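Why should sequence recovery work at all? Because a backbone constrains its sequence more than one might expect. Tight turns favour small or flexible residues, buried strands favour hydrophobic ones, and helices have their own preferences. The token representation captures these environments compactly. In the example below, the structure is given first.
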């Protein structure tokens, strides 16, 4: 069953502002939790897939933070910031440039980005992105109604192996974008009520504490509503579909000389109103 523009279902979590974390507690159970201060965590009850959750009085002791969702599908939009298109020498696209990442690429916050060594890449790049989570199935959604289907917003790093993207990928991007750990997410997602305008958010990447990307989502060529409208055209977007909306200028590939990730690096991505996603970098260990 899907909800089209004629049968709009407003996805909401009791119309409240909330940060939602997916965590592993001290009993090694996977739980959903929320926190106002990032230190004290309360449990959530109810069915998040139905947009119905309540904060409980239970305090949760965190063992580890997990990616806030387990996406069924990951759609990605390339060349969606004007200045990024300019730094790569690409033309401004007339339609969204779409590619996919495998859900197996998802990585938890604070866990490492692993540089491939079996299929080796020496040009692994960072890409700060606003992630959009679809809350209920939709198809043929209009731009005017598109945001009604959003469950929340999160932070993503569209890690990319540029040598596989440009030289060895057979003219497609999937191989370069979907190695294990190449889609860090989190540390939380925020409800739509927490974000007044997803296309007016400061977005920053720091590599080893140095700012390398600094922009605002208003530089997007196609805004969030346009992207949902386009992706849902003649296509069902299921609940827990994740959409990565593109990266701003400042990626390593666009620098002179290029700046690629190496073991020991730490990547931090910060998006206004959502938080900071942090991941160290290591090499793949070959047996």
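From this structural description, the recovered sequence reads:
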């Amino acid at each position: 069953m899907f909800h089209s523009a004629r049968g709009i279902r407003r996805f909401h979590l009791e119309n409240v502002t909330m940060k939602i974390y997916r965590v592993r507690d001290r009993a090694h159970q996977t739980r959903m939790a929320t926190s106002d201060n990032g230190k004290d965590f309360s449990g959530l009850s109810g069915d998040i897939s139905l947009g119905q959750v309540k904060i409980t009085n239970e305090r949760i002791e965190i063992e580890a933070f997990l990616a806030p969702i387990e996406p069924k599908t990951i759609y990605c939009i390339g060349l969606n910031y004007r200045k990024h298109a300019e730094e790569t020498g690409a033309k401004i696209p007339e339609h969204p440039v779409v590619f996919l990442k495998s859900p197996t690429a998802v990585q938890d916050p604070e866990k490492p980005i692993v540089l491939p060594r079996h299929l080796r890449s020496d040009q692994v790049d960072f890409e700060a992105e606003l992630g959009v989570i679809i809350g209920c199935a939709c198809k043929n959604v209009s731009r005017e109604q598109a945001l009604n289907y959003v469950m929340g917003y999160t932070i993503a790093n569209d890690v990319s192996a540029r040598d596989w993207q440009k030289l060895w990928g057979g003219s497609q991007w999937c191989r370069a974008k979907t190695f294990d750990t190449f889609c860090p997410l989190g540390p939380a997602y925020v409800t739509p009520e927490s974000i007044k305008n997803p296309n007016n958010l400061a977005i920053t990447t720091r590599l080893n504490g140095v700012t390398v990307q600094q922009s605002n989502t208003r530089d997007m060529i196609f805004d969030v509503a346009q992207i949902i409208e386009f992706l849902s055209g003649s296509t069902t977007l299921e609940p827990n579909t994740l959409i990565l909306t593109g990266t701003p200028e400042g990626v390593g590939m666009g620098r002179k000389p290029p700046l690629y990730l190496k073991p020991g690096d730490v990547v931090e991505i910060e998006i206004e109103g959502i938080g900071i996603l942090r991941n160290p970098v290591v090499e793949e260990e070959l047996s």
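A few observations help interpret the result. The CA atoms of residues 79 and 90 lie 8 Å apart.
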